[in-house]
Structures are given as structure tokens and as C-alpha cells.
């Protein structure tokens, strides 16, 4: 067979990278038989099942439109965050996402509003599949029940939660001020001595208690339903204050505003006593050119304290020019014993 024809045969057989032609050549070589080939022109039809999500959407959406290919997975739910330009095609996009990710994905939903309500829950519109937003998911070897219609969950923060957990020890006592359904609090309970978990959303508290029982960790977790500021003040006014070593405040839109609750938490106690000054992990957003400096300044303002040594890290870019950050610092003694009567 001429070399040109063989090359054409190999090029024709792109579906298997030429392996079928190689196999034929090897078989004939072993038999020492003369090689005879015939190239036949045929029509190959590739149906819907063959094409990937991005290839289908690229063909169906208007030319030049950015193809939405990423989504967050929460149990059986695919959570989209479509741009304005995608909305006229939202059900088409959802149908393709559902078709191409079955059976793992059974529901496709899109966030239809910014998170601005008191309980920080997302407003979701189901676009395809099962209309239930109740699901079960796994993280850190634990299982969690959630209902995205009434509670908050962010799978993309799983790595950040794991990072925080890796710094906890069996001697720690953790306060989770904005615990939600318990992804951090319940995971921490496997590691630490004790967890105090709080949330204002009654639905989140219900799921937090259910998930604690589900994972057989309810004996190591005490659950509260309080405003975050009130929870901080109550915990450090109690006999539990001396044991608390870690405080987590993961409510990035508002958490820094609650830091003023730490001012004067020990002001009514003798300064020569033994006190634990907890490590505080507070999360926030920043659109500033220097997000670390911006967030650090907001922490200083909230605490009314300039000398706050902070370990700052960028968690993730949540939108163009908008960073989520985590600041970790030991509560300064000057803040804990501050005279709040002179605060204005």
C-alpha cells in the first residue's frame, strides 16, 4: 500500500487515533500476507449523546455569547449562576446541563437574586428536573441534609473549611458564630473537645441538630439560636469563656461588623486572673485595590484597636475584582478588657 494512502487511512480513523489501522497492519504482518486496502467514503452522524455540554451550548447559543459551563454541585442539585445575557436561554441551558450530568444531577436551579435577606439564604429558581431542593451530601466523611430553599450551603468553601479544621486540636473548644447547617461545626466535633454552634435561622438550627444526630456527634455539640452579637456576649459572660480557644465567624458580608461584641468581654473580671484569649477567624469581602489592607482596616475599626496582628489570606475570587478573605488573629487583651462605657 502506498505511504500516502496509509497516511490517509490513519487520518480518516481519527475516532480511535489510528489504533484500528495499526491493529490491522500488525495482524497482516504476523501472517506475512500481502497488504490490500480500500478507502471507502462514508457518512458519520454524531448524535446528541456524543457531544459534550460546552459543544452543544456553543452550537445552540448566539455566536459570541460566553458559554456557561461551570456550576456548583450540592448533592443531586446543580446550582447555576447565570449572567443576564443567558436568562432568555436559561431553560435550554438547564436542560443540557441536566441531560449531560445524569444520574448524578437530578435538579438544575439558578440563583435569581443576591443574598441579602436576614438568614443569608439564596433565592433559587428550578429550571429543569426534580423540583425538590432537599438533598443529602457528603463532606469530610460526614453526611449533611440540606434544603436550599430555606438554608445556605456553599460546596466551594469545602477546601477552606478543611484548611481551618487542620489547625484545630483535640484540646480546642470552638465557637461557630454563624454555623448554618453545621459543615464546620460538626466536622470540628470529630477533632476538638467541644463545639458551641449558633445560627439565627431557625431552619438552619433544625438542620444543624438533625445533622449532629445523623453523624452521631450531638453529645459534643451544643446548639444555639441567637443573633451573632448576642451569642458572642453570652458565651464570654458565662463560665464557658475560659475554655473557648477558637471562634469562627464565616458570614463574609457582615461578620466584621460583629467584632465589636468582643470589646470588654472581660472588663468585669480581675485583670490578674487567668484568661484564654481566643483565636478569631473572621471572613469578609473586599473590592478594594488592596483587599488585605482594606479588610484589616475594617477589623481595626470594629475593634477600636490599632494594634491587631492579623494573618490574612485570600480564600477565593467570588466575582471580578471581589475577594473573599479570612483574617485570623488572637483577641488582644486591650480589647477584651476595654471599658465599653467610654465607647461612642
UniProtKB/TrEMBL annotation:
Q: Which HAMAP family match?
A: TRM5
Q: Which GO terms describe its cellular component?
A: mitochondrial matrix; nucleus
Oligomer status and interactors: Monomer.
Which residues bind S-adenosyl-L-methionine per the record? 161, 199-200, 227-228, 250
Q: What does the entry give for GO biological process?
A: mitochondrial tRNA methylation
What the record says about family reads: Belongs to the TRM5 / TYW2 family. Belongs to the class I-like SAM-binding methyltransferase superfamily. TRM5/TYW2 family.
> Localized where?
Mitochondrion matrix; Nucleus; Cytoplasm
Residues covered by the SAM-dependent methyltransferase TRM5/TYW2-type domain? 71-333
Role description: Specifically methylates the N1 position of guanosine-37 in various cytoplasmic and mitochondrial tRNAs. Methylation is not dependent on the nature of the nucleoside 5' of the target nucleoside. This is the first step in the biosynthesis of wybutosine (yW), a modified base adjacent to the anticodon of tRNAs and required for accurate decoding.
The protein's Enzyme Commission number: 2.1.1.228
> What is catalysed by this protein?
guanosine(37) in tRNA + S-adenosyl-L-methionine = N(1)-methylguanosine(37) in tRNA + S-adenosyl-L-homocysteine + H(+)
Q: Which organism is it from?
A: Medicago truncatula (Barrel medic)
Stated name of the protein: tRNA (guanine(37)-N1)-methyltransferase
Amino acid at each position: 500500500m502506498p505511504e500516502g494512502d496509509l497516511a490517509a487511512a490513519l487520518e480518516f480513523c481519527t475516532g480511535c487515533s489510528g489504533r484500528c489501522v495499526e491493529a490491522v497492519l500488525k495482524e497482516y504482518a504476523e501472517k506475512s500476507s500481502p497488504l490490500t486496502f480500500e478507502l471507502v467514503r462514508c457518512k458519520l452522524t454524531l448524535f446528541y449523546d456524543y457531544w459534550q455540554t460546552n459543544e452543544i451550548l456553543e452550537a445552540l447559543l448566539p455566536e459570541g455569547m460566553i458559554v456557561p459551563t461551570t456550576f456548583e454541585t450540592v448533592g443531586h442539585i446543580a446550582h447555576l449562576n447565570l449572567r443576564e445575557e443567558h436568562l432568555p436561554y436559561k431553560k435550554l441551558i438547564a436542560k443540557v446541563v441536566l441531560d449531560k450530568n445524569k444520574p448524578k444531577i437530578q435538579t438544575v436551579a439558578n440563583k435569581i437574586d443576591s443574598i441579602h435577606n436576614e438568614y443569608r439564604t439564596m433565592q433559587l429558581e428550578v429550571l429543569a428536573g426534580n423540583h425538590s431542593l432537599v438533598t443529602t451530601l457528603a463532606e469530610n466523611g460526614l453526611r449533611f441534609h440540606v434544603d436550599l430553599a430555606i438554608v445556605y450551603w456553599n460546596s466551594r468553601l469545602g477546601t477552606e473549611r478543611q484548611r481551618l479544621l487542620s489547625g484545630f486540636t483535640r484540646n480546642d473548644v470552638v465557637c461557630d458564630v454563624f454555623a448554618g447547617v453545621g459543615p464546620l461545626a460538626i466536622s470540628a466535633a470529630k477533632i476538638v473537645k467541644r463545639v458551641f454552634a449558633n445560627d439565627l435561622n431557625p431552619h438552619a438550627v433544625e438542620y444543624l441538630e438533625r445533622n449532629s444526630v445523623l453523624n452521631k456527634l450531638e453529645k459534643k455539640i451544643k446548639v444555639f439560636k441567637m443573633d451573632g452579637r448576642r451569642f458572642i456576649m453570652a458565651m464570654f459572660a458565662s463560665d464557658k469563656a475560659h475554655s473557648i480557644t477558637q471562634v469562627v465567624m464565616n458570614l463574609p458580608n457582615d461578620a466584621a461588623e460583629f467584632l465589636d461584641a468582643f470589646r470588654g468581654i472581660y472588663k468585669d473580671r480581675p485583670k490578674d486572673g487567668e484568661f484564654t484569649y481566643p483565636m478569631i477567624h473572621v471572613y469578609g469581602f473586599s473590592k478594594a485595590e488592596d483587599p488585605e489592607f482594606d479588610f484589616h482596616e475594617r477589623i481595626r475599626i470594629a475593634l477600636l484597636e490599632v494594634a491587631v496582628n492579623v494573618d490574612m489570606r485570600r480564600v477565593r475570587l467570588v466575582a471580578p475584582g471581589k475577594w473573599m478573605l479570612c483574617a485570623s488573629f488572637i483577641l488582644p487583651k486591650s480589647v477584651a478588657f476595654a471599658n465599653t462605657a467610654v465607647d461612642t
